[in-house]
Amino acid sequence: MEQNRREFLKASGLVAGSVILNPFTGYGFNSAVGDTIKVALIGCGGRGTGAAAQALSTKQNVQIVAMADAFKDRLDESYRNLTAKKYKNAAGATVDIKTKVDVPEDRKFVGFDAFKKAIALKDVDVVILATPPGFRPSHFEEAVKNNKHVFMEKPVATDAPGIRKVLALAEEAKKKKLNVVVGLQRRYQANYREAIKRIQDGALGDIVGGQVYWVGSSPWMKERQPNQTEMEYQMRNWYYFNWLCGDHINEQHVHNIDVANWIKNAYPTQIQGTGGREVRTGKQYGEIFDHHTLDLVYADGTTISSQCRQFEGTWNKVDEAFVGTKGRIDSFDGKKTILKDYKGGVIYAHDDKADINPYQVEHDELFDAVAKGEYKFADAERSAKSTMTAIMGRMATYSGKLIKWDEALNSDINLFPDKLAWDANPKLLPGADGLYPVAVPGKTVVI
Amino acid sequence: MYKKILNLIPVFFLCLNASAQDNFKSYTQVIGGSPQVYDMVAIPGGEYTMGSPATEKGRRPDEGPQHKVKIEPFWMGKVELSWDIYDLYAFKNMEKEMALRHPDPEKSVAKTDASTRPSPPYVDMSFGMGRAGYPAINMTQYAAILFCKWLYEKTGVFYRLPTEAEWEYACRAGSKTAYSFGDDASKLDEYAWYRKNSSSAYKKVGTKKPNAWGLNDMHGNVMEWTLDQYIPDYYAKQPAGEKFAPVTELYPTAVRGGSWDDEPADLRSAARTPSKPEWKVLDPQLPKSEWWMTSASFVGFRLVRPVKTPSAEEITKYYSPALIEDY
């Protein structure tokens, strides 16, 4: 195994900030930029570009040295945005981003195998994986194989074979002491951390029920363009195809489902639910449902209800609430993060005034650990299990059946195309009327 | 409700067709192709003293020097703009659906829709505080201006954001005190939703007492966008004849009125609030959204309509704010 550069730094007792010796030649290494943490950005959409900017805004000397995307236009736009303006770092000092984005043309990689070339670069320390989630297992695999620390966006897969792969890789990453941070940013958000720490210390007694919601409006949709192959159309409009997105219950609601699992410190043993396409029925919306409602049932019998929908013009809520034997928490929404007992007493009220943007905290903590040569973050396993919970929810609403954890996790239904190429076909194709086949509860087989 | 609209429609058409000054009365703007209406209050022109005296409790240096400002007559929204109307603009599908249910051959979807609309928000921009009857929040100043353009296309009536000077004039309603009702902050509860009485959420528009000119929620509930760049010493160095400070930088722009999350001093008629990049801190994308603030659940807006309609060129200028990308 090639020794990880950061581990080497720690093992050899070198202090971050001093001149770094190249482990292989003994010569000064990157001396022009000092102790630089080099990053490859895989997936150059708005979120990937945002994550790159956050990495560059940490206290550490971070440099983006490679970029990869399936589409050249997405990569070019991201590069333009990253090099357009000066940022302020965490200490409030102005940072000239251009000096921190060192991506010449020969380190811009485009196409389905672009990620491999970027991750394989020897001096890359950290990779940011921010493509549509269907690619996450194979990209994570490449990162772990190449001994890179990882920031990857949620969810971490779209089907059970993908989850099993991520779980196996999580073990390997742990053995290699690779830090893995996953963008379930509530885990890095102070009001959640403080309240849940107290709940897990027993402030509300045993948690015996709750509700989690992502009830909001519909996201973007990209119209089909002339001359697009089916593969390109699905890639551009990835939100509406399960091999790429996993349905909005996976892509979005996984945040709230993860909070339920966090509070329970467990994963549901079984789920049943209902869902469908009520508003968003056109052919431009692929195959995903527009609403799901679930019972998440845990081993101790606790049932937490989960709702997600994407309707316009309706009542909305993105939040979580839980009841315990001694008290309750009705909201985690900023100023309303208050633990209460049943006599109206306040057990804990979170003051969010000094809180830092959790999207930034994710990167601050990851890069701090990488710079110090510490191994602190192993988010992959729990994130894979929360992603599995969301996939299991989709299995329940698509099939209309009661789904158990083990049978869901062992499902061999693989949504990924057999071949990735612009002229290859994804598994799901539209009918003669342009409409995609959509799951029918009671008929659709999911396991 | 329907009867109320019918009664007001003649007034509305007179305003459009005759010299507006001759018929300078409050009216109700119908949003064609929907059941929504928006009450506009006639604000007479006049001269007033903008800013606060050094003796005012809670006063900040950016509120001086006090100076005389002459204001042309205009109409101002009686209440803050609600989600009911803003969502028609933000969600084209909703507008289409409404138009089917509320056919209006003169207006709405029959017109060519040239509007640029907000991108769909990733999180719920009402943050669970309520939608029907509640103030729209979290839009950028840019989005609020383009909303005015959309409404112009729908109605043929020129609407825009108030200037800081117009806003303060309308808020004061002839008063010279810290609040439109006097200096006694203990009376705020009758007029405003603010930190002490809001239970950490905005409230339905128009549920507190109006000021002397009939405007509700000028103090509290949500802060309101103005047309101005926020310049702390603008009152000292405002070029002669300039009605407002044109926006050339994304931050800060001027916001007025204080919100459900603010202390009494922030709700004063003269209090000025600069917008901040932090109001978009939870937007994880780059560039950040030009349409949504994401973390400004205390900022909304209301409309004004000047009695003297600007020229076509001026209108185009009002509706073409520079898009300043937010990195």
Automatic annotation (TrEMBL), chain A:
SUPFAM superfamilies per the UniProt record, alphabetical: Glyceraldehyde-3-phosphate dehydrogenase-like, C-terminal domain (SSF55347), NAD(P)-binding Rossmann-fold domains (SSF51735)
Domain of life: Bacteria
Transmembrane portions of the chain: none
Boundaries of every Gfo/Idh/MocA-like oxidoreductase N-terminal domain copy: 37-176
GFO/IDH/MocA-like oxidoreductase domain segment(s): 192-329
Protein name, as recorded: Gfo/Idh/MocA family oxidoreductase
Organism name: Dyadobacter subterraneus
TrEMBL record, chain B:
Alphabetical list of Gene3D superfamilies matching this protein: paralog of FGE (formylglycine-generating enzyme)
Protein keywords: Signal
Protein name, per record: Formylglycine-generating enzyme family protein
Domain Sulfatase-modifying factor enzyme-like: 38-277
Record flagged with keyword Cell inner membrane: no
PANTHER family linked to this entry: FORMYLGLYCINE-GENERATING ENZYME, SULFATASE MODIFYING FACTOR 1, 2
Signal peptide: 1-20
One Pfam family from the record: FGE-sulfatase
